[in-house]
């Protein structure tokens, strides 16, 4: 039986996704993780498909994992480096996207510093658009890999307490995770400096705490956020040393969470700022496994969206 995944052309964010759609991707990623564990990771499932990554911001994990996911599944993949593309000659975003689309591209994976950039180009291109991070809005594939990691380690998401701590204001990872976790029935607590806490964030269904310690109490999962130095407006935190002292995740703060709490971080990590090296390397930390799971989740996304909604059960 073929079960319909979705009628949507694009993956723009978790805000508009249903719990069923999220669960479908998570289940499909389980199959992909099995494929990743094999000696030969090559599958023919995207043979003849073309994927282009278009990144206007730096990236290691997201860009490389989309590229490898495409290659593992036999797709043609091209990476547009904005620094050496015709963007430098003045070509605008829409014209760049249309140009890539006209080359027969099936999926455009885009990261852009402006919120809404993927939504904008999706109106002009036939290709599926996958949001790989837009400004301070969403980073849906990161949240999906976080949800996958939580479900893999805890066996469920519903009923868990998840503490998201740090720079919530600038974090597209936090927003996508809040949408995804609340849709799947988790209790979400957010904690961090008042200057880095968005106004009215409680309207998204989360509990807001002024200190990291209070947010961490009895947490099953901790999502520790990167201090986004590139997005900080002057004066939001006194100094990195102060931030680390009052809001960093260290051994003393970790004891407020449950003893078996998972520690996650989207990366890249500023060691010694938002997290100590000791906590990053401890046995509760699954930060490195998140990276592996990112490839599995992105394989599932590329497969599901190029199949036009067909079920993953047909993969074997
Ligand atoms: N988590 C994340 O988006 O990492 P990159 O910036 O390295 O892609």
* Helix vs. strand class: alpha/beta
Could you estimate the helical fraction of the residues in percent? 25-40%
The main pleated sheet reads as:
5 strands, parallel
Can you tell me the CATH superfamily of the largest domain? Aspartate/ornithine carbamoyltransferase
Please, what is the average pLDDT?
93
List the total number of helices.
11
Oligomer type: single chain
Q: What would CATH call the class of the largest domain? A: Alpha Beta
- Ligands bound, unique: phosphoric acid mono(formamide)ester
CATH architecture of the largest domain: 3-Layer(aba) Sandwich
Low-pLDDT segments: 308-316
Task: Domain count, please report it.
Answer: 2
What is the overall shape? globular
In sequence order, what are the helices and strands, one letter per element?
A: HEHEHEHEHEHEEHEHHEHH
Number of strands: 9
- As a percent range, the share of strand residues is 5-15%
| Rg on CA atoms, Å | 19 Å
**Terminal residue distance:** 14 Å
Describe the structure.
- It contains eleven helices and nine strands.
- The protein has two domains: about 140 residues, 3-Layer(aba) Sandwich (Rossmann fold); about 150 residues, Aspartate/ornithine carbamoyltransferase (Rossmann fold, 3-Layer(aba) Sandwich), CATH 3.40.50.1370.
- The C terminus is likely disordered.
- The chain is about 35% helix and about 15% strand.
- The radius of gyration is 19 Å and the shape is globular.
- α2 links the parallel β1 and β2.
- It is of the alpha/beta class.
- Bound molecules: phosphoric acid mono(formamide)ester.
- Phosphoric acid mono(formamide)ester binds next to α2.
């Amino acid at each position: 039986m073929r079960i319909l995944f979705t009628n949507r052309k694009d993956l723009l964010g978790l805000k508009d996704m249903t719990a069923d759609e999220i669960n479908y991707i998570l289940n499909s990623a389980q199959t992909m993780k099995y494929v990743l564990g094999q000696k030969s990771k090559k599958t023919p499932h995207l043979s003849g498909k073309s994927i282009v990554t278009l990144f206007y911001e730096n990236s290691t994990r997201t860009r490389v994992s989309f590229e490898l996911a495409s290659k593992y599944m036999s797709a043609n993949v091209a990476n547009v480096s904005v620094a050496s593309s015709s963007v430098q000659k003045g070509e605008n975003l829409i014209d760049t996207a249309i140009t890539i689309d006209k080359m027969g591209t099936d999926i455009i994976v885009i990261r852009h510093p402006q919120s809404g950039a993927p939504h904008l180009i999706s109106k002009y291109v036939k290709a599926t658009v996958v949001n790989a991070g837009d400004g301070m809005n969403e980073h849906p594939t990161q949240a999906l890999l976080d949800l996958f990691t939580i479900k893999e380690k805890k066996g469920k998401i519903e009923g868990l307490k998840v503490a998201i701590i740090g720079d919530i204001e600038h974090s597209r990872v936090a927003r996508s995770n809040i949408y995804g976790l609340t849709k799947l029935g988790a209790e979400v607590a957010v904690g961090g400096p008042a200057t880095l806490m968005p106004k009215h964030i409680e309207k998204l269904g989360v509990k807001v705490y002024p200190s990291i310690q209070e947010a961490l109490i009895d947490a099953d999962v901790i999502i520790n956020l990167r201090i986004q130095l590139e997005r900080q407006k002057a004066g939001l935190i006194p100094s990195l040393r102060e931030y680390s002292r009052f809001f960093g995740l260290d051994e003393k703060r970790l004891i407020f969470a449950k003893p078996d709490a998972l520690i996650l971080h989207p990366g890249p990590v500023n060691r010694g700022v938002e997290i100590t090296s000791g906590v990053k390397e401890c046995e509760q930390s699954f930060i490195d496994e998140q990276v592996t799971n990112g490839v599995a989740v992105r394989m599932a996304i590329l497969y599901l969206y190029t199949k036009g909604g067909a079920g993953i059960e047909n993969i074997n």
